[in-house]
Amino acid sequence: MLPLTKRQREILDYLQDFIQQHGYAPSLEEIGRRFGLSSLATVHKHLTNLQEKGFIKRAWNRSRSVEMVPTRTGGRAVELPLLGFVAPPLPFFAILVVLIGVYLALVQLCKQRVYRSHGAWRRRRARVATLRRTTP
What we know:
This protein is mostly helical and 136 residues long. The protein is 62% helix and 4% strand. The chain has a two-stranded antiparallel ribbon. Helix 1 (6-22) packs across helix 3 (40-52) and helix 2 (28-35) packs across helix 3 (40-52).
């Protein structure tokens, strides 16, 4: 998102506070009165700039239709999720190496069993087929 001017930030903060207190958006006249703007065109221009920068949404040709768009930064502060704690590297990597070794050994064992059982199955099937051909 593009950066805000000081006045745009003030208007955006006012919109958030007003909507939170009243449950609906202020009118253009209320915004103008709050900031001492005599022209509604100036208020309209500020709201249009906020809309183009992606901070608000407005419905066309409707009064009090300003909606706040949730931002990724959550306002002025940035929240970062905590994924976990930083572990000391040596024990972590030692355990990881052991687990990978066990996993690879199990995979190799399973492959050998599958191939062995598949071979035995094929040999048995071949024997059954030859017995069927030879019996009258």
